[in-house]
Amino acid sequence: MKISAVEAIPVRIPRERDKAVGSAGSPTGLEEGAANYRWSSVFPVLYPVHFETALMKITLNTGVVGWGEAQAPLAPEVVCAIVDLLLNPVLLGEDFDGSLDRIEWLWQRMYATMRVRGQTGGFMLDAISGIDLALWDLAGKIQGKPVSALIPGAMGRQRVRAYCSGLTGATTEDRLRNAMERQAEGFSTFKLFFDTGRAEFLDLLSMVREKLSPGASLAVDALWRLSAEDAADFGWELDRRNALWLEAPLAPEDPVAHAELARAIRTPLALGESYRTHYELAPFFNMQAMGFVQPDLGRSGLTESLKIARIAADRGIPVVPHISIAMGPQIAAAIHLASALPGRELLEYNPNVLEVANRYLIQPLECRQGSYTVPDRPGLGCDVTFPSAFNRNTVRTYSI
User: Fold this and answer.
1) Which of 28, 300, 355, 361 is least crowded, fewest Cβ atoms below 10 Å from its Cβ?
2) Alpha carbon distances (Å) from 165 to 11, 22, 23, 225, 346
3) Interacting residues of 82 by C-beta distance below 8 A, sequence separation 6+
């Protein structure tokens, strides 16, 4: 079998931002303006107005199709251009037998195209990761097994416990009501985004804690807002409230500051979504800066995420995959990874994101009673469907 076609498809879907704000992928309000990308109203990060991602489709000469996806919330056309111009020539015509050794070989081949040219992260790795997921999807279809069954040492879970990522609502009362509704649905772990003033946020955290059952767990995502000077003080407040973790507290480029914070507070730090490879995460591992590691499958793919997970296992660090803006291939890959890894199974869940993803899947992904169902179909189990009017050759950006 040979790879006969590689397609990269930028996707841009209109979304109701009012319903999404406060949840994964849309954690804060945005500054006013007419641009499609706007600054967060809370901290200096650019967010999209629309739901944006990049889908990958690889076809073998036998007709078997594999679907993948890159995390591409900003300018998905960039990721797709990398696939078209750099990765397509590397992949076309290559033999593919569906083995993990062959996936690893192709990953190294793609990585080597720009390694000495300084492109070992960012958009380049996002593109590689999207292709990597498509290769794993193909491998499962060739072997007739779900991707989770291909992962060495897989635990074989059929369900994966989910945590509710963000509490949407225009008011504190709305957010508290949201928390109670999610708890009634079966969720016992929640993540709140530090999207307001400090005192207001800590009050909300305390109120949510009081509303939920005693066994509920609360994590906090600081959205890179803290500084080395004020992070420990904020962390001590979380210690008093028994937070499950403090996610993304500081500038992601500074492992030393993270290590110092990890030593200063009891609440574990959760890191991973900002990094694409085990190379990038090495200083955080080596400095013992993480209590949870959160690879994002649209940025690390399965191949690198498994390397990260092995390093984490050697250090006794739980792996909780990160899910942000994503369609089916990213979400399904995260479910398969979480189902296969030993130790604590837990996976991010956003109902708005899953609802959008399921619109364009032949067989929808399920999250019920606080747990994901692991797809049991060959591959990732999430073949994408598009309206028949879509023509990849004439429409460069697909707006649904």
Assistant:
1) 355
2) 23, 9, 6, 18, 12
3) 8, 123, 124, 127
Of the listed ranges 112-126, 302-316, 381-395, the least confidently predicted one is 381-395
The DSSP-derived string for 103-164 is HHHHHHHHHHTTGGGT-SSHHHHHHHHHHHHHHHHHHHHHHTSBHHHHSTT----SEEEEEE
> CATH 3.30.390.10: which residues of the chain?
3-145+388-399
CATH no. for 3-145+388-399:
3.30.390.10
Main-chain dihedrals φ then ψ at residue 124, nearest 5 degrees = -60, -45
Instruction: Give the model confidence (pLDDT) of 315-331 as tens digits.
Output: 999 999 999 999 999 99
Residue 98's CB is within 10 A of a number of other CB atoms, namely 22
Token pair of 232 as six digits: 């420990």
How far apart are alpha carbons 215 and 219 in whole angstroms? 13
In Å, how far from its chain's centre is CA 87? Answer: 22
CATH 3.20.20.120 location in the chain: 150-373
Confidence at 25, pLDDT banded by 50, 70, 90: low
Domain 150-373 superfamily per CATH: Enolase-like C-terminal domain (3.20.20.120)
pLDDT for res 24: 66
Rounded Cα–Cα distance for residues 375 and 104 (Å):
23
Q: 195 near 22, Cβ under 8 Å?
A: yes
Judge contact between 155 and 188, C-beta under 8 A: no
Q: DSSP E strands: which ranges in the chain?
A: 3-13, 37-39, 46-48, 51-60, 65-70, 159-165, 189-193, 217-221, 246-247, 269-271, 292-293, 347-349, 367-368, 371-373, 398-399
